[in-house]
Amino acid sequence: MNTRLFVSRLLGRFSICVFAAAFLLLGANYSAAADPESLTSLDTAFYRVQSFDTKAGAKPLAINHLGIETKQAADGGYLITAALEGYPAHAAGLERGDIVLRIDGADFHPLLSLNSHAAESQFRPHSAPAELTYRRGATVLTARVEPVFESLYDSYRSATLNSVLSFAAGNKVIGYVRLWALTRETGDLVTLSQLLQSLHDTDGIVLDLRNSYGYLASEHIDLFRASRSDFLSISLVGKPNSNAIEHERNRLLPARQRDDTLRAYRKPIAILIDSSTRGAAELLAYQLAKLDRVTTVGEPTLGRLGSYQRDGGVETLVENSVENLENNLNKSLDGGSLDYSAADRVLIDGNVFEGIGVKPKRKAPFPFETVSRGDPQFQVAVNVLMGVI
């Protein structure tokens, strides 16, 4: 059934609070392509933003999910565009390019398939494993999975930790880390620093910024650079007032004092980027790529530095309360929307970044629909490191 038709019927049967809560469960189902120019409560990207934009002191909504990012496949089902390390789908062997068709014999739907009590406003852990039917190329396969019950914010942070590994390549050792989540929380920055310390003895690192989401802090850059020389500058076109410039700087990269005791990673780095690398991750790739020992690999990013606005102002989308949830979604259902405001006046090092993004030094195409026994972009990154180590 068409998703929007399904929603229309659902609204006719249940109250707005039930509908609102149910659609929050779509957080892991956003398209890997560019965000649309306008988001409503019917757009899954709305809830990806919600997971990271919950105000301090409020807890993001816990949902049942498999740890996959998907988009609707042309021939039915949902195409996996990424699988979070350590989460059910990844553990069961599902991977990018697979198309999920059914769950326990019923058509798979990323909303109600794993949250059957949404109609009763009950959001509790899925109590039993489920059998997924999925297609890989022309082959139909099955897998048993047990959904997790937690917020996407926590899941992405955990997946970052789960992604870390080191492996032998010839007579060298290569490290790997996928930054699913970029957060400015002190605890997360300390953990990430400790994580990278475990890779300091490697001969090179593959830094995966595909599907990365969150907010950039100066410390993220400091982890890979020994100094802040040629640090990126943020300015605005024309002659804006100082408050406007300061707002953009704080939004994109707040100024913080560097920790001189930090031991930055100084060996070769290959950074994986593509169209799913957004905003903060794009700026991180851009800044690190200024170093000769850093090579960006993959496909161009889209240059998405803007923000979503409602009623002319930036707004945290959803707080952890039914009242605020209902009010926000009512605005959207009554014709309101979150409109993407492009950062076309923002200059990075004096140049417009919006819509331009980062071009990889080494191109390596990898369409999301590709069924592959490996990751061609990752392999190119390893080859790049082996060529310079």
What does this entry look like structurally?
This protein has 11 helices and 23 strands. Helix 2 crosses helix 10. The protein has 2 domains: 3-149, PDZ domain (Pdz3 Domain), CATH 2.30.42; 164-305 and 342-388, 2-enoyl-CoA Hydratase, Chain A, domain 1, CATH 3.90.226.10. Strands 3, 4, 5, 6, 7 and 8 form a 6-stranded antiparallel sheet that branches. The protein is of the alpha+beta class. The chain starts with a helix and ends with a helix.
Q: What is the domain tally?
A: 2
| Low-confidence spans | 1-34, 40-44, 311-336
CATH architecture of the largest domain: Alpha-Beta Complex
N-end to C-end Cα span: 53 Å
Quaternary state reads: single chain
Summed over residues and divided by their number, the pLDDT gives a mean of: 82
**What would you give as the CATH superfamily of the largest domain?**
2-enoyl-CoA Hydratase, Chain A, domain 1
- Provide the structure class: alpha+beta
Q: Total number of β-strand segments?
A: 23
CATH class of the largest domain: Alpha Beta
In CATH, the topology of the largest domain is named 2-enoyl-CoA Hydratase, Chain A, domain 1
Q: Tell me the major beta sheet.
A: 6 strands, antiparallel
Strand content: 15-25%
Helix content: 25-40%
**Which word captures the global form?**
globular
What Rg do the Cα atoms give?
21 Å
What's the helix count?
Answer: 11
